[in-house]
Amino acid sequence: MYGLFLRHFYLITRSFPRVLDLVYWPTIQITLWGFISNFFATHTTYYNNAVGVILTCAILYDFLFRTSIGFNMLFLEEIWSRNFTNLFIAPMKIGEILTSLVATALIRALIGLIPAVLLTSPLFGISILDLGIFLFFLFLSLYLFGITLGILVSAGLLRYGPSFENIAWSTMFLLAPFGCIYYPIEILPEVFQKIAYLLPLVYIFEEARNILINQTVNIQNIYYAFLWNGVYFVLSIVLFYYSFNVAKNKGTLINMGE
Amino acid sequence: MKNLVEVKNIKKNYGKNEAVKGISFNIKEDEILGLLGPNGSGKTTTIGMLLGLLKPTSGEIFINGQKLEGNRIEILEQINFISPYIELPKKLTVKQNLTVYGKLYKINNINERIEFLSEKLRLEGLLNSITGELSSGQKNRVSLAKALINEPKVLLLDEPTASLDPEVGDFVRSFLENYKKEKKISILLASHNMNEVTRLCKSILMMKDGIIIDKGNPDELINKHGRKNLEEVFLKLSRSKNELN
């Protein structure tokens, strides 16, 4: 496991553009949304008290996005560098491969998140730490969902090969409307609301807004977020093992690097 | 000499397509077995099954006495593979790549192992070079170092000297001959270079359309088919109907 972590750590430290890429998008995202938030705050009374809410949700969403894309990137890097077969003939259990990728994805996401969080205070006078101790649970829940999506996409890559790559890029954008990241769930049509309630995202972002606006904590939201996360996480692991076995039958593993 | 590799009637179907139709062979320790055949004959599929990357539709594979099915991780610790179709991460240095694979193969004395292999494979001056910036010959020797990082008992080689210049090709062949003799390992060599196969292999399997159509040592096959060299035997068998089975 440490070996696989080293493989990606070396890659990151050898390439400044990669480090820049990790930092660039979160920073741009936060800066952009910060200015948008400020604009609305000065033009509507509703948003006047909610600059921190929008920016906090942007940071949370970006952490989710970074975690999921980060996980996919680790997997895709092996395909692009034609190293995939080498990895799968090394004596590593599937669980060890997943654990390594999950840990490395966290480090990648944190490298991007920390500068973004630090920038919000001097630039906009807002601190995400206002969420208090529950911030940890929200981040943990987002991290779980991010790697769950990453594992699901990786399962698709194993099953269908590199052609599944485009799905890797679009998963987060597809789910974003149902996540109720920047607006309350009531904004969605009723059918969409039913779908949204099946995702952990809506509970996480509803709770973030609840804490910041109402200064109260609804434990039930955090509970449901973890419950759905647990369901999807187990499902993703099962699907990954299934895809691995399908790939062994179809020959995807040996053709992946060619 | 005991058999380090035992393949018993393995078949592989992709849907209705039968890629490998029930082949059996053994590789003894201190033996290089040549695996020849035209493109699409089932060589890569056979290697994929030996590596545990492909599940045989039926049949059994034993490596060093252990059945591959159910013991994949333990067996992968004892084998390794080199192919021009797979590469090491290009942005890492040679030493970083070898360190990563040393860790993945749970090698205790990684630095000593890297030092040993870099000396044997003329890589001393390249350890801090970026892998992607190396020449084909240098990359090939780095891949070979990676393939030997775990001191494999069984080495699977798919076109190990493809695209190498004659000097480097000769160096790699000499290295493999000596390493096999010294470590008593088994090597399966899939190659289209008939001179290489003639030089390295005491026994050869000829595959075509998923079956073994002939086998023997190079001289036997040349005499049996009344040809001047192995390349002519290859051409005759590739263009003819199946001889065995």
Characterization of this structure:
The complex is a heterodimer of chains A (258) and B (245). With 258 residues, chain A is mostly helical. Chain A is 82% helix and 0% strand. Chain A contains 12 helices and no strands. Chain A has helices at 2-14, 16-43, 45-48, 51-80, 84-88, 94-124, 134-160, 165-179, 190-196, 200-214, 219-250, 252-255. The longest helix of chain A has 32 residues, at 219-250. Chain B contains 9 helices and 10 strands. In chain B, the strands form 2 sheets. Chain B has a 6-stranded mixed sheet, with helices on both faces. A 4-stranded antiparallel sheet of chain B has the order 2-1-4-5, covered by helices on one side. In chain B, strand 9 (203-208) and strand 10 form a beta hairpin. Chains A and B meet through helix 1, helix 5 and helix 11 of A and helix 1, helix 2, strand 6 and helix 3 of B.
List keywords for this structure.
heterodimer, A: 258 residues, mainly alpha, 12 helices, 0% strand, B: 245 residues, 4-stranded antiparallel beta sheet, 10 strands, 37% helix, globular
Note the overall shape of chain A.
globular
Name the overall outline of chain B. Answer: globular
Roughly what is the average pLDDT of chain B, rounded to an integer? 92
Number of strands of chain A: 0
State the end-to-end distance of chain A.
25 Å
Proportion of residues in extended strands of chain A: under 5%
In N-to-C order, the SSE pattern of chain B is EEEHEEHEHHHEHEHEEHH
Order of strands, widest sheet of chain B: 6-7-8-3-9-10
Gyration radius of chain B, in Å = 18 Å
Largest sheet of chain A: none
Structural class of chain B: alpha/beta
Write the H/E string of chain A, N to C.
HHHHHHHHHHHH
Sequence stretches where pLDDT stays below 50 over 5 or more residues of chain A: none
Total helices of chain B: the number is 9
Oligomeric nature of the chains: heterodimer
Major protein interface:
A-B, 32 and 38 residues
Helix percentage range of chain A: over 70%
The gyration radius over C-alpha positions of chain A equals 19 Å
Residue share in helix of chain B:
25-40%
